[in-house]
Amino acid sequence: MKYIVLICARGDSKGLPGKNIKPLNGTPLIGWSINIAKKIDRVSRIIVSTDSEDIARVALEYGAEVPFMRPKELAQDDSPEWLVWRHAIKYMESNTGENVDAIIVLPATAPLRSVDDVNSCIDLYENEEVDSIITVSAASRNPYFNMIVNDENGYASLVISPESQTTRRQDAPEVYDMTTVAYVVNSDFVKRFNGIFDGKTKSVLIPRERVIDIDDLTDFKVAECLVQNLK
Questions:
Q1: The dihedral sign for the CA sequence 83, 88, 89, 95
Q2: How many Å apart are CA 179 and CA 181, to the nearest integer?
Q3: Is the per-residue pLDDT at 230 higher than 80?
Q4: Are 107 and 191 within one domain?
Q5: The pTM is what?
Q6: Residue-wise over 162-171: b if at least 16 C-beta within 10 A, else e?
Q7: What is the pLDDT of residues 173-215, one digit of tens each?
Q8: HSE-CB of 168 using CA atoms within 13 angstroms
Q9: What is the CATH number of the domain that holds 123?
Q10: pLDDT digits over 127-156, tens only?
Q11: How many CA atoms lie within 13 Å of 185's alpha carbon, on the beta-carbon side?
Q12: Nearest to 208, CA basis, from 121, 106, 135
């Protein structure tokens, strides 16, 4: 099976203006995702969905395709990413005649993923009867142990009350943080449903040092430190 890689990169970033083409260790952020995609044997095309001419230019320089500019209504702060995926799939099928079996989504904001991370997601997708694969990391907080919610009177309680008192974090049920390292999703599923958990989903565990999701300047500075450490 051949896959299309989809990299979604909106131009108007509030948390860190221009982040998708901001150089990280000399490479624009979106270039990190493109470079990983080019190393995956099972990928047939690398598509960037953007509303920004600047991002499109950089994406082309790094070897991706920009076959369309993203419509304005899908480039707002509150535009669902799921609809961006659906738009890309439908555009490719309608304008190229190519049947898109599945997409691999590699967000530009997760530059520290490895080729092995992505290939692990593809392998799991191919070997299980699922609609999608997501990536996760070990959670630093646990709703059964040290995550709380306040009621209307301001009194705190655990987000999820365990059946018996949990005094050690190790005794709480294991939970994970969902990451943006990679997604592998069946295209028909994206067209028919409205969210990743509407179907059968399995996950791949990624080490925490590779799951940074850059949203603001602090995240970017952390990523710079991690890159230097990995080197």
A1: positive
A2: 6
A3: no
A4: yes
A5: 0.90
A6: eeeebeeeee
A7: 789 999 999 999 999 999 999 999 999 999 999 999 999 999 9
A8: 2
A9: 3.90.550.10
A10: 999 999 999 999 988 888 889 999 999 999
A11: 27
A12: 135
Query: Buried (b) or exposed (e) across 12-45, using 16+ Cβ within 10 A?
Result: ebeebeebbbeebeeebbbbbbbbbbeebeebeb
- Same structural domain, 149 and 111: no
Domain that holds residue 101: 3-136+176-230
Burial (CB < 10 A; 0-12, 13-18, 19+), residue 229, is exposed
Q: Which among 88, 96, 98, 97 has a CA at the least distance from the CA of 183? A: 88
3-state secondary structure at position 140: coil
Stated length of the chain: 231
Q: Which of 134, 66, 126 is nearest to 106 (CA)?
A: 134
Contact 19, 220 (CB under 8 A): yes
| CA dist., res. 209 & res. 84, Å (int) | 28
How many distinct structural domains can be found in the chain? Answer: 2
Instruction: Assign 231 a pLDDT band (cuts: 50, 70, 90).
Output: low
Contact 175, 145 (CB under 8 A): no
Q: Residue 213 is encoded by which pair of tokens?
A: 């999701």
Tokens of 54: 């600047």
Neighbours of 152 (CB within 10 A): 5
> Taking a C-beta distance cutoff of 8 angstroms, is the pair 115, 185 a contact?
no
My answer on whether 158 and 73 are in the same domain is no
Helix (H, G, I), strand (E, B) or coil at 111: coil
Q: 48 is written with which tokens? A: 């960037």
